[in-house]
Each structure stands twice: as C-alpha cells, then as structure tokens.
Description:
The protein is mainly alpha-helical. It has helices at 3-24, 28-37, 41-52, 55-69, 73-82, 85-97, 102-117, 120-136, 141-144. α4 (55-69) packs across α7 (102-117), α6 (85-97) crosses α7 (102-117) and α6 packs parallel to α8.
Amino acid sequence: SSGINAEYGNRDTKLYCLNLLIDFTKSETMLSAFVNCQGTLLSDLTQNDLVDGTPCIRDKVCELLLHLATKDRDLYTRILGLFTTDITRCLIDQLGNHGNNTALLGLLHVLLPDLCENSQDNRDRLIRSLTANLENIPLHWRSKQGYNSVTLS
C-alpha cells in the first residue's frame, strides 16, 4: 500500500518498536546490548523524530531518551551530546507552540540544567517558551474547582 496507509503503518510500527525498546532496556543486559549496537539510531531519532516527527512519535522518542538518560550516566552524557544548539533551540521553541508538551517537558527537565548552564540564549528562550505555554493553557479549571472568588489582578 502507498500514501497515507503506508505512512500510518510506518508510524504504528515505529511506535511499537519504540515501546519495545523502552521495555527491553529496563533490563541491564538488554540495555548494554542496545548501547553496543545502536549506532546512529539515537541521533537519527533526535534529529528527525524529535524535531519534525508526528506528536505521538515525538512523545515516544522523548520517553525513550528520558528513560535512557536517567538509567545510566554515560548514556546521559551521550544523549546530552545529541542536543546541538539548533536542536535545543528548536525543542525549547516547540514548548511554546504545542498543546501537550508533557513528554518533551519531562525530557528537557532532566537535560536543561546542563543545556542552559552555559547559554544565555537557551535560558531566555526557555523562559519565553514556558510563559507562552502557560498562557496557552486554559484556566477554566478554576471555576470547576470552586475558586470562583479568586480574581486575577
């Protein structure tokens, strides 16, 4: 099949594989096997799917990278190294544009101290993106929670 069906098939297969990788690499032996043979996979996923991927693939790649980065110090350093200036800028800017950024925020939360440490630009971008994100989140929940008397000054 071609066109849209193939695209969905590829996306579903990719999601399935990413889920399996996350599950498998919870075991130390599988993790070391993965580290030894992953080649350029992590950089490909970061450059392509994290920056330009469909939201569900992007979220799953975030989940995989976060899982790996928090599992092992060497992997953390390797994953941090994938975040070039351009990729970091792009991802921080995405925070301000997308509705649901839970997965991306989770990943950046772990990496940002190092990514922002030496970069004023990253720090400024992050603050702008997070405030944009907060402005985009509807505040309707207040009335439902019984905070009717709370007014914004």
